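Q: Give me a protein?
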Amino acid sequence: MKQTAVILAGGKGTRLRPYTVALPKPLVPVGDRPILEIVIIQLVKQGFERIIITVNHQADIIMAYFGNGDKWGVRIEYSMEDKPLGTMGPLKLIQDLPEQFLVMNGDVLSDLNYSTFLKKHIESENIFSIAGYKRIQQIDYGVLNVRDHVLTGFSEKPQKKYMVSMGIYAVSQTILSYIPDEQYFGFDMLMFKLLKQNITVGIYEYDGYWMDIGRPDDYEQAVGDMETGVFKY
């Protein structure tokens, strides 16, 4: 079976403005390459032979840059959305997906081994697996614990830990039956649906490097991490 990755690159990148005024978000550079090119290089190194990029906003620019993938030694295909379909909706437009495949956002920078993640998913026999990352959020205020208008506790600028989705998923073809045709259908909508039906969703905890460059602050940190060698690919 050819290892296949679907990269979601149809968004407008509004949170990353002004960097995305002229360029689609997947082509915003991190170091000397666009982030999507970095992802493709990583996938090829890890044995992926087929990459499908879902496109909508500024699709012509993305397609002109990556072409058919010959430059990177991989087969690149495109799936065009006529309208925004969210995170999971675009999967229903792809006709010949394999039994197991990787799905990921086109603006994620990580040193996760995507091939290992996909193999772990297959071994688990779950129909959907999420790469999860423990993130610490600093609260910049003194937090009051209150009951009946009386202070019962106090924390000075506490930290809260969360397990967040990395925007990287391993998927079995079965999941397509849970996604409606030609409708906007996001990752959140799919999760609520699977939880309601008691479908097991696997979590693959990762503690290496991960950065979602959707916001200017995170993008600037990723650029700095590349320059200082914190992130390598």
About this structure: The CA atoms of residues 136 and 161 lie 5 Å apart. The helical segments are 35-45, 59-66, 114-124, 187-196, 216-228. The mean pLDDT is 89.
